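Model it.
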Amino acid sequence: MVTKLIECAAVYATILFIRVIPLRGVHHVSSFLGYLFYTLVPKRRRIALGNLKSAFHREKTETEIEQIARQSFKSLFQTFLEIIKLRHVFTAPDAGDKIRTKAEGLNELFQKAKKIHDQSGGCLFVTPHIGNWEMLPYISAIVEIPLVVVVRALDNEYLESLIYKNRAASGQVIIPKRNALFVLQKTLHQGKSIGMLPDQSTMKGIMVDFFGRKATTTPVPAILSITYNRPIVVVACCRRDRDSFEGFVCDPIWPGEYTSEKAEIYRLTHEMNSSMASIIRKYPGQYLWMHNRWKTYEGKKEFLK
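Modeled.
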């Protein structure tokens, strides 16, 4: 309990510190923390370098791969520190106008996402762990898309409460990943959309291609898509430089007519992974390569019979 309280206090102190320093200071802090993490946590460094070599072994040199790995470690910290610093921007009455100055073509992207949501009566917005994925619920609120976001619960309940409070400021509904299926079904029945990060390995996943290798991927977006006839839409928010971003709203992936439900689930999941990979290829230094994406599970049985 004491350790958890110390962790929570440290995070809270970090939040207060980040709120008072300028945005350029956030980038310097992110670079320093990313350097420490890359240097002092060899397990994650090895995973990141191994993943990158596998994904880009024919496209990138050893030097380029190491550079991308270092950028990835910095980007992880930048994601969370950035949202602490910019949260007041997203919750301000003129948030929409302020955000439009940070990226080109946002009106078109906002309209595209809203149109897909409205016409489908709620859809499945999915994003990989790239750029600043924490901004997307705030953007959804600005566009007036009612969203239920699935997140992984933290082991530290005090830290979970602190983080949840900040996430809930987006105005969206946040639910824990465990046993979320019933809530997600209810969400689609109510005409709301769902936000998910489906790019991490899972024991209950299916084996689908990702950067040329089979990776366990959750079939939940595809299952919900087929069951409720809703599209999967890959979205992302990536940094172009220190003070501007590029948004992505890919064309909706609709379920089609099929003779095999299992084959259709694989098809939808494969298309989802391909869309996410195309964004990651454009901004590889902003992807979470330190996660063991191609983890194998001993004794794993096929999830879909």
